[in-house]
Design brief:
By secondary structure, this protein is an alpha/beta fold. It has 3 domains: 204 residues, ANL, N-terminal domain (Rossmann fold, 3-Layer(aba) Sandwich); 103 residues, Luciferase, Domain 3 (Luciferase, domain 3); 91 residues, GMP Synthetase, Chain A, domain 3, CATH 3.30.300. The chain is 28% helix and 27% strand. The strands form 7 sheets. Strands 4-3-12-11-13-14-15-16-17 form a 9-stranded mixed beta sheet, with helices on both faces. Strands 6-5-7-8 form a 4-stranded parallel beta sheet, sandwiched between helices. A 4-stranded antiparallel beta sheet has the order 18-19-21-22, with no helix packed on it. β23 and β24 form a beta hairpin. The longest helix is centred in the first third of the chain and has 15 residues. The termini are far apart. Bound molecules: methylmalonyl-coenzyme A (MCA) and adenosine monophosphate (AMP). The site of methylmalonyl-coenzyme A has 23 residues, from α5, α7 and β15.
């Protein structure tokens, strides 16, 4: 039976019944409670062109998102630690007239605040009057590009529902699972897969607040967690914690994504947890398109095969088809029913990432072996950094550094980091200021994870004959 959480959308973004309850950071709600608390939200937001959600790791965020989906209103999650620059940009760009918050009267919002009440119970009377077409925009997720401010990725209800169904099939995910994770609730991984996925499959969700090894181990030991999601940083921290890693023996399936899982981390988990994680690959613009399968052997360092209905291809520098094979690399393109409906207000950027025949240029360099397995080798641009699974555009951080009057030039790179995959490091030409002061300065405008871990002051940046900064030299120097 499909619970009428998101009415009129069976097979598009319906939510299955099951023994589901949602626990976030120790607070829980059953499915009936969620449906009626969300109904109260739906009746407040129905008819809005979009609604922002202060997406802290809290039960209110889940209720807010489900309520907006019920009302057919596009959801725009805002990172709770977003700096004023980022927050203002997102709110202006998406034109949401209101924000759903856990508690109203927070100074940081300059638009109408609608408080979400976990205890509130209401009926959703307007279901029949809302036109919930599958291709309506369900979510707008902001993500960084190489330059400029983040772009809003418009995801339809149909694309999300399709992706979740394909992943449920790949991972043999059923209502008997208990999903555990502690990822941020403003990106695809934590929110789309980690919340909507659990609701759609009908499996209980335990969100641990933060993704620490101890919290994951407790959720497995005490709450019967069977399916666990993490970014590689989370898995590497678990692998380094003997007790937490051995607790994972009780889990059915560990899943890693958002960045490449280092082979030594896979091996360590294989040895301590009795299983290495299944890897899956995707991006905000395409959702998850390639994955290992629960029922098949895993391969450390490889992210799996395309989900059913997904096509992938490799192209060369001129955009022509490139040969495949275990040692042949090319730029990866994806065509999938799960891809975005475009960037909000940015047809120019949508055209750049999309080929004329409808494929998405992922920007990733990959190889595909004869069995269709994919290995992600790197990114085409050094200007997209993945740190702890967060995608960060070098240009956005450079702009934040250049906003300081003491800074004349800035170059931001990702340097290899054993914990985060890549750590953000800034190189600046500046006078009368220190590196730590500049880190703090960036922190005042952008989210915490976009803050450089280190800023180096240099006399000049390395440039080629054309005057272009040679970031590869900075990366090589760090190596
Ligand atoms: C964090 N801290 C910092 C900085 N960053 N301090 C200075 N400079 C920085 N740049 C502080 C934190 O505020 C915290 O302080 C302390 O360092 C340690 O934080 P902790 O949370 O343990 O670790 P972290 O290093 O901040 O973060 C690791 C993490 C996080 C928890 C794994 O990176 C994370 O949540 N990653 C998930 C990203 C994600 O969901 N990506 C999905 C994108 P204090 O202790 O005082 O608070 S969607 C996607 O990629 C696609 C679709 C896909 O494939 O999934
Ligand atoms: P985002 O837009 O935050 O969704 O980031 C998407 C990017 O994350 C992709 O283009 C890849 O560079 C990277 N990514 C996601 N999953 C994996 C994976 N399993 N292995 C390697 N890179 C990944």
């Amino acid at each position: 039976m499909v619970v009428d959480l998101i009415p009129g959308l069976d097979g598009a973004l319906g939510v299955n019944d099951g023994p589901a309850a949602v626990v976030v950071d120790g607070r829980s709600i059953d499915l009936g409670g969620l449906a009626s608390a969300a109904a109260a939200v739906a009746s407040r937001v129905v008819g809005l062109p979009a609604v922002a959600v202060d997406a802290s790791a809290a039960l209110e965020t889940v209720i807010a998102v489900v309520g907006a989906l019920m009302a057919g209103v596009p959801v725009v999650p805002i990172p709770p630690d977003a700096g004023p620059l980022e927050r203002d940009h997102i709110l202006r760009d998406c034109a949401a007239p209101a924000v759903l918050v856990a508690a109203a009267a927070q100074d940081k919002w300059e638009l109408e605040q609608i408080a979400v009440d976990v205890e509130q119970r209401a009926d959703w009377d307007e279901a029949g009057s809302v036109d919930l077409l599958p291709d309506r925009i369900a979510m707008i997720l902001y993500t960084s590009g190489t330059t400029g401010l983040p772009k809003g990725v418009m995801l339809s209800a149909a694309a999300i529902a399709r992706d979740l169904d394909l992943l449920a099939e790949a991972w043999a995910w059923t209502p008997d699972d208990v999903l555990v994770h502690g990822l941020p609730l403003f990106h695809v991984h934590g929110l789309v897969l980690g919340v909507l996925g659990a609701l759609r499959v009908g499996s209980p969700l335990v969100h641990t607040g933060r993704p620490t090894p101890v919290a994951y181990a407790e959720a497995v030991e005490r709450r019967g967690g069977s399916l666990l999601f993490g970014v590689p940083t989370v898995w590497s921290r678990i692998a380094a914690d003997h007790d937490a890693a051995t607790s994972m023996r009780r889990a059915r399936l560990l899943v890693s994504g958002s960045a490449g899982l280092p082979v030594p981390v896979y091996d360590q988990l294989q040895s301590l947890a009795g299983q290495g994680p299944v890897e899956r690959y995707g991006m905000t613009e395409t959702l998850i398109t390639v994955s290992g399968r629960a029922a098949e052997a895993r391969r450390a360092g490889w992210v799996g095969r395309p989900l059913s209905g997904v096509e992938t291809r490799l192209v060369d520098d001129d955009g022509h088809p490139a040969p495949t094979g275990p040692d042949q690399v090319g730029a990866l393109e994806v065509r999938s029913p799960t891809t975005m409906s475009g960037y909000l207000n940015r047809p120019d950027e949508t055209a750049v990432i999309t080929t004329p025949d409808g494929w998405i240029r992922t920007g990733d360099v990959a190889c595909i072996d004869d069995g269709g397995w994919h290995r992600i080798v790197g990114r085409q641009s050094t200007d997209l950094i993945k740190s702890g699974g967060f995608r960060i555009g070098a240009g956005e951080v450079e702009a934040a550094l250049l906003a300081h009057p003491a800074v004349r030039e800035a170059a931001v790179i990702g340097v290899p980091d054993p914990d985060l995959g890549q750590a953000i490091v800034g190189y600046v030409v500046a006078t009368s200021i220190t590196g730590p002061e500049l880190c703090e300065f960036v922190a005042a405008t952008l989210s915490i994870h976009k803050r450089p871990r280190r800023v180096e002051l240099v006399a000049e940046l390395p440039r080629n004959a054309m005057g272009k900064v040679q970031k590869q030299l900075l990366v090589a120097d760090e190596g």
